[in-house]
Amino acid sequence: MFRRDRTGYRVSGIGYSPKFIALGFGLWALCSVLPAKASAEEPPSKEPIVVNGDTVEYLHEKKEVTGSGNVSITYKDVLLTCDKITVHLDTKDAIAEGNVKITQKESYFTGEKILYNFDKRTGDIVNGYINSKPFYGKADEIAKVSEKEIKLDRGYVTTCELEKPHYRVQARQVKIYLEDRVVAKHILFFVGNVPIMYFPYYVQPLKEQTAHATIQVGKESEWGYYVLTSYRYYFSEICNGKFLVDYRTKKGLAEGVDNKYRINGLGDGVVRFYYTNENDSTAYDREGDTQSKYRVQVRHKWDMGNDTVATLELNKVRDQNFVKDYLYKEYEEAGDPDNYLSFITTKDNYTISLLFRKRMDKYFDVVERLPEFKIEIPNNRLTEKFPIYYKQETAGVYLNHTFPETDLEDQKDVSTIRFDTYHRLSYASKLLGSLSVTPYAAIRETYYSKNRWGTTNVDRTVFSAGLDNSIKFYRIYDVQTSYLGLDINKLRHIITPTANYYFTYQPTVSPDNLNQFDEVDSIAANNGIQFAIENKLQTKRPEGKDGPLKSVDLATLIVSTDYAFRLEKGSASFKSQKFQSIEFQLELSPYPWLYSIVKMSVDTKRQLIQSESVDLVARWADRWSLGLGHRFEDVESGRSNFATLDFIYKINEKWKVRAYERFNMLDGSFEEQEYTVYRDLHCWVAELTYNTKTYSDDQTIWFVMRLKAFPEYPIGFKRTYYRPQFGSTGNM
Questions:
Q1: What pTM was computed for the model?
Q2: Cα–chain center distance at 415
Q3: 578-594 mean pLDDT
Q4: Confidence of residue 579 (pLDDT cuts 50, 70, 90)
Q5: Domain 20-50+93-205 - what CATH class?
Q6: Collapsed DSSP state (helix, strand, coil) of residue 687
Q7: How far is CA 660 from CA 648, 657, 692, 711, in A?
Q8: Which of 3, 19, 642, 692 has the maximum number of C-beta atoms within 10 A of its C-beta?
């Protein structure tokens, strides 16, 4: 540890986040300025400390070096400059005074007096200043008291580099536990010299970048006006998360908690609870009777060692549409709630899994697996002499298909015990040097304890075979040009045609005679060829400004289709043959700032386009960005046809505007429009947004303040909003 001089100076300092909802990040950055302490096992470095200055004196008996006047010391990656210094060569402790500055990489700190150990890289600072972009801060005292702890007293931190910052976060005391958490006491958030918010106690996990407190306001047709709030808490790794308190004028009050935890040796997970007494007396626009609704969720993951991972998920809801109505983003990502327990062991040559799936609520259609045991062997080469590969999948499962309970006559559950095994042999060969030919043959044997009609002990055999073929041709054109700014350094044209023949013989048991639980039960006779041809155009461009040349794709076109055969029953002659839908995909990237992708599917039977999508994204430095999109779909359930535009334009260094449009081309109307104005406030960006949705008659205005250093973490009033993203607002 450090000696303290007789003046009583000791190191102390400050480092907190540039905003009250992310306090820990700034403090953590301090650790990059105060270098990490060497481990106990690491021997002291024998590298000498060389002191340069106007006057340098070596005291042999004391093993000290003193210097004064323009002192400069470079030791490893640390540069120290000051007016006066004393270095103890045996311990590598140093006392520096007068205009002291210690620089490491792109960060530095200064102070009136600094006690520093070059070997351990620990130090104490008096009246210190820290510059570690994007963080800047000052403190009366900064003390690194141990390898994993820094104590800070009476100071502030900000992301504004001005001498008088526009805002700052100030605290009486902060303790930083490196790579773990920050604990702060008596926090004040200042705008200018005006305090606007106070927290008596605050804990910020350094491994989590989540807001301490959030509030979202808006209006939705199903909710009415709403306010969604959350407050994050952190007591320990086994108990941290956030409290939720929400209000919707048409629904009423709702409360919840999301608690994350970690148990040493037993994994980590999350427990979530959300509850509302829908349409109770707190609802301004009451609709219908009062209904108590909730969702309870438990998710847990445990790395058990020996390449085995256990995963548990439990969900219990009251009301079939609760997750969809109140937690729509989660519903979009995961769909209906699931309940399962799985164990998966993954080795180089095989994978073993055990799965339990059980329905917890009567509202959902679920195929229960009670349980399913599966062994999978990937493609393994059998011999070194011949390229013969073997693949196997074997599974045993008790299946129970449960159907939703309704007011109508309920469909009875169906179940069976199924043992299924699949074996495939393939031979990978090369012909004529470039033609890849891979013939394969496979057999699947499946046992059912009963079929759809109640017949017991049913065996099914399915034989399949095929032949995968592909070849690659290319030609290089000696072209070098900058015409239209394309920067072409030779062109390479690659053509890769493939023709894969597949054949599945008629199963010994028709899928019509089986209850349908998954894709194994729906296997039917199949016979055809999958054709595809890929055309790719490449050139070479320098990587970076003066880097080496690297291959880049300018254009890629893939056309694919299936040609299906159908045999006469009991005969080898063809009953019919036809092309299935034709798929097109074109990617273009002629410039680094321009990208486009087009996908299209053509129905050969109707000779019509059944789906199409076009995306074009362009960006010019930070001046403007443009995203154009088009979607078309013509299916049995209906037709959709809409276009989108997302345009951002930077007027000057202070102002930027954005427009988002979604246009329905079937009825000639705008489904959604959104306009945003951005104002640069030096270290902040202010956003004012107006959004309107024609189909739901919703109109919303919201205001957001974002730190430029952390634009993804807003402070202000905002509503949750999801849409296709074709551009990006970026930083001003």
A1: 0.68
A2: 39
A3: 92
A4: confident
A5: mainly beta
A6: strand
A7: 9, 10, 11, 19
A8: 19
Q: Assign 405 a pLDDT band (cuts: 50, 70, 90).
A: confident
**Could you give the CA distance from residue 185 to residue 121 in angstroms, rounded to a whole number?**
27
- Residue 63 in this model has a pLDDT that exceeds 90: no
Q: Which of 727, 623, 633 is nearest to 674 (CA)?
A: 727
Q: Which amino acid is at 3?
A: R
Locate 438 and state its tokens.
Answer: 């891979």
pLDDT value of position 635: 77
| Predicted local confidence at residue 343, as pLDDT | 97
Q: Is 513 helix (H, G, I), strand (E, B) or coil?
A: helix
* 331: enclosing H helix or E strand: helix 328-334
Asked if pLDDT for residue 657 goes beyond 80, the answer is yes
Choose among 24, 21, 1: nearest CA to 11: 1
Contact of 160 with 21, CB cutoff 8 Å:
no
Question: Which amino acid belongs to residue 426?
Answer: S
Neighbours of 702 (CB within 10 A): 19
Burial state string for 226-244 with b = 16 or more CB within 10 A and e = fewer than 16 = bebebebebeebeebbbeb
Locate 340 and state its tokens: 């399962």
Gap between the Cα atoms of 174 and 182, Å rounded = 7
Return the exposure string of 116-140: e unless at least 16 CB atoms fall within 10 Å of the residue's CB, then b.
Answer: bbbbbbbbbbbbbbbbbebbbbbbe
- List pLDDT tens digits, range 204-221: 665 555 556 667 777 777
Q: Among 647, 598, 639, which Cα is nearest to 623's?
A: 647
Q: Under 8 Å CB-to-CB from 546, ≥6 apart: which residues?
A: none
**Beta bridge partner(s), residue 181:** 177, 205
Calculate the average pLDDT of the chain.
82
Task: Work out the pLDDT band at 496, boundaries 50, 70, 90.
Answer: very high
Look at residue 193 and give its three-state secondary structure. coil
Contact call for residues 494 and 475 (beta carbons, < 8 A): no
The total of other beta-carbon atoms located within 10 Å of residue 576's CB is 9
Rounded CA separation 507/422 (Å)? 14
pLDDT digits (tens, 9 = 90+) for 527-572: 999 999 999 999 999 887 777 889 999 999 999 999 988 765 555 4
Q: Which two tokens stand for residue 469?
A: 């073929």
How is residue 564 annotated by DSSP?
Answer: E
